[in-house]
Structures
1.
Amino acid sequence: MTLNISVITPAAKRSRSGNRTTAVRWARILESLGHSTTIDEAWPGAVRPETTDILIAIHAWRSAASVAAFRARHPSRPLVVLMSGTDIYRFQHSHAKKTIASIAAADRLVGLHDVVADDLPLRFRSKLRVIHQSALPLPAPRNPSRRSFDVCVIGHLRDEKDPFRAAYAARSVPDASRLRIIHLGRPHDAAYARKARIEMATNPRYVWRGEVPRWQVRRTLARVHAMVMSSIMEGGANVVSEAVVAGVPVIASEIPGNVGLLGRDHPALYPAGDTEALYALLHRAETDSGFLKAVRAHGDARCDRFMPERERSAWAALLGELSDR
């Protein structure tokens, strides 16, 4: 049976944010399963109220109005809510009323990493289904630069990303080091853009390239030796999946969103916000080829969970559960 599925995301149509990227990928997966999908920033119930068989809302707090409107109009139709990183680690505490209302209204909750349940209220954990975000392999073998030891940071410049941690760590490397930090991402505001430009002017090891299209992200992954995921809060960043599938060793902050993707035994975790610890890992990655190979091997062993067919199967199973209702 073909279902009409409405995907709601707070990210605008032309946005390159993770929320929009997730919405577009999910819509493609759902269409590949034979269903009809639309993507909106809010549920257009007043325009086409009877055409939505299932609502999938990305972000419990930011999509709270759509969740409430859909549930009020259709008390028995299936409703799925994606728990974003800010939902899990911030808004269910700081904006509890709306966030918990969305969680309570949902028939199923989707989490993007393996330890999401640890931070959900116990009474809602039975609703949770973990669906890892997938990535495609690079079209050709990676060819890291020989002139410099390039490490990328891929993420927008905003507080949750701790975006300059790798740049700060690079300040301490020895003069003989070839380390270069390449940062891709849109600034949250003018202040962040100024800070990035100042860091480039004073730190010759830091290069900020701003927001770039997806093909440039993938080209960067093909050319770097490693990636740093420095966030202090994540719901399960797709860029980690992309790096693992691309064969890029990942150095990551030890937060649930990273541990839930990379595993508690990942050999390149550091305490979030700890510049000295990150410096030690970057220095070791550059000078100890065995360490870098071990980090990559750990990622390779987890690569299968980020394959597109696995994400597609997880959605097929979830829709099957909802249909059984």
2.
Amino acid sequence: MNSILLKTRFLFLCGLTLSWFTSCEDKAPPAQMPPLPVTVAKAELAKPVVYSEFPASLRAASQVEVRARVQGTLLKKNFTDGQREWVKKGETLFEIDPEPYQKAVDAAQADLTRAEAGEALAQSRFKRLDEAFKKQATSEIDVDVARAERDQSMAAVLQAKAQLESSKLDLGYTTVKAPITGRISRSLVDVGNLVGFAEPTLLTTIIDDSEISGYFEVTERKILNFLAARSDEATANRIKNLEIRLKLADGRIFKNQQDEIVWGKIDFIENEVSSQTRTNQVRAKFANPDGILASGLYGLIGVPTMPDPSKPEVAEALVLPTEAILRDLAGSFVWVVDDKNTVQRRTVTVGKSIPLDQTGGVKKSVILTGLDGTENVIVAGLQRAREGGVVAPQPAGKAAARK
């Protein structure tokens, strides 16, 4: 019984093994995967306007400290702290007690009247003695004394007039007026306080921010090219005519209320390089009639430069979509498809990014080295690319049309 059972199991296993080998022989080899599609494009030769950006501190074109120029009690303030409306040049801001200064004016006027009376008397006496001397009715010494007294009286009149003008000037200072038109800060001294006792007391400040200046530092290495060429009038004019861009702290480009970019101009370059920071200070001015900018803000000054810093005379450069440029520990690179549709790695040197207003909103970057413009660069489907792999390249225009 056992032998029959063993024979039955053996025959079953043999049949199962034979069936397995037969099925393996009949099974067809797996089909090879077709090349994966990728989108390719050639680097475009363009004349992009790229910017070198420098951190800048923004300041109003004019900022004035209003101080008390005479001593006295502050009687009145004629503005609202931080008011929205601008104060006008010559507008009265503060009033200081004028009484002691008015009395000084009255006293100076009296001194002048007395001096003028003395002058009239001295002039008359000298005239009489001079006529008598001509008739030999008096001595020469008497004439000389009369002449000296006349000259002294004339000097006394001049001194009295000067004292009167000084007193009037002090009286005028009791009315503190706005030296410029602009936005006023708060009053730093309350009414009733004594001002101008030890020094000219700071009362408030006025800022005219209808024009904003951006101060930024240029490194010694970058300023050397300018210093070498500043004697060239064409270079100097080109720098003056550069359209300077201002990027605000939130990344926005400074625009006016009509949503137009406000371009600035460089109007000042410091006459020496700082020995401490090894930088040179430069100033660019921007119109700010709408009051969008305020003094004290931070910004990035964008100075237009040529695409390749090593070739300042060349305005053209190759441009690629930024998303096509990859980076690893070995540096920046792109995937290039050769004439056999094989993917190859190409190391590139990447320049500055191009402002979006020049590219229709597409992020693009300058390629300095590594490409000559004839290569098919993978710009979409980068995840399907690998070194030595075969792909199915499709021109960027056709791929976009299918979408």
3.
Amino acid sequence: MSASIVTRRRFAALLSGATVMSPYVLRAQDASRPLRIVVPWPAGGGVDTFARVVQAPLSAQLGQTILIDNIGGGSGRVGTQTAARAQPDGYTVLLANDTFAATEALPLPGTVSVRASFAPVTLAASAPQGVFTHPRSGLKTLADYVAAAKAKPGALNVGIPGIASSQHLTSELLLRAAGNATVAHIPYRGGGPLIQDLIAGNIDAGVVTFAAAAQQAAAGQLIALGVTTAERPVAFPTVPTATETVAPGFVQTTWMGILAPKGTPEPARTRLHTALLAVLKDPAVIERLQTLGFDAVGLDGAGFAKLFEQTITTFAGIAAERGINAES
């Protein structure tokens, strides 16, 4: 299964085959200590939004306090290094998205390798990447966006949550699929700061995880031009896909999931996977995630690892083609 063609139906099929462990497994770890989830982005981005949705129900499942620790910088690398240095005792984990496949595809010397430092626990959710603009830009549709990018190559200023982030590479994949259009990508420390600058009109457009800017679009502060998934977001059926507008057949789904530092005991990883799986099967959580533009997944560590490798291959290919490196 290619990382570029992961669909809602496929994820639903994977989720339906998951199993639930006994309550004893959930309570096996010392619940008096909090579970720290490192979110390697500033507050307000897509990964942080997902973390906040599952924080309370996951805490209830585990009988344990959940702490969200936002550590931004370096396209996720700073937070990753922090989590990698934590004791592998099951009390610190990393909430990663597909940007970590990008950092593996384009490694910086001296930085932490996610492959070498973490074990996949659960692929928790999938989501579209969204192309957004502000109401004063004059861009009304994804076709307008592509036409402007072609008319004056490099003239459109398009925000991304970091150079060589998954949003950056997905943007390049979309521009290639739409006829090799070109924009000027402007890096930010995360989706939250990018969205604020976009609302202010300081950039022309932005590519972020759809959930990060969905509410601002619903409020009229931003315009959602399109999404990169095969299907329109459940809660936003008027937002078209790239494949039905400017790039037939184009699909690139973003994902996020939990990784544990290498050496974390298997019972601790199983306990967390089981609890998170129960949360992702909760109808209230599913509805809330869909309202924000996410789809619950619940894929186990082995399946997560496979998708991770496939995404690395996809991102390495477009980076080589477009001349992108981690030090760009």
4.
Amino acid sequence: MDWRNVAPHPVVFVSGAEEYFAGRAIRSLREQLKQIDAAVEIHEIDAVDYQAGQLLNLTSPSLFAEPRLVIVSAVEKCSDELITDGLAYIENPTQDTTVILRHNGSSVRGKKLIDALRANANCAEVACLPIKGDAEKLAFIQGEFNHAQRKVTPGAARALLDAFTDDLAELASACQQLLQDSAETISEQIVDRYYGGRVETNAFKVVDAALAGQAGTSLGLLRHAIATGADPVPIVAAISMKIRQLAKIYGNRNASAASVGLAPWQIDRLKRDLSGWSEDGLSLVIQRLADADAAAKGAERDPVFTLEKLVTLISRKGVPEE
């Protein structure tokens, strides 16, 4: 089952490392079961301390036959007893009872139980895989609005990502808040009204501003990043990655996304960023990148100054100041 569209099942296996998705899926199941019957009994078990017979005791029919929900957390650290009892339970689950088993994938502990869960018709799996990169995060934002049957413009989705790039839970919360807005379509202007004051500097914003020719903005972002504790080394690494991507596209404007290992939207953006660049300018920036990398790693006493000169050069499309 998709984590956004979970439904009650005798046994639900919630797998994967993304705790936010897992938490939402488990909360949704809990709420659905309460709506079906407000008298549902809810029990939570830590798999680390599980003792033989606990699952049977909690799921055995009671005198009044109340529905039950049993949530077993940390299955990646489970005891041998849980594996034994779990294997037996999934073959004959109790009626009107839902058992949730949460495994974050950080270990192979419980593999025999996991394999059985995936092969048993009484069980459903909810995969909660982490999302990586801007493309997957933008797809997540779009999915939040699609799920609510609302529209969000590409610019608004990008603005949301820029504001909450490092925290998925905060990003999701922002989407939910915007869904409370009465507008039929969430636009960039609406996002700016809610979150325009939020400043979250990272290395990619520095280089994006520089590539857009915004020297003052990129220097301001760079100084803010350094002032708030960012290290020059990863900033140089991020700039280097962007410039390498630019060089790949410069040499082959018709390159497909697959051939250069980039997403189609990244190719489109890089082609826009290439406007005004020359081969000499790109070569000079690559040379200065090597200098900035060495400076950041201790070759110079003031690596930030070297980094500022690099950012300024990028904003000038590789044309040195006279």
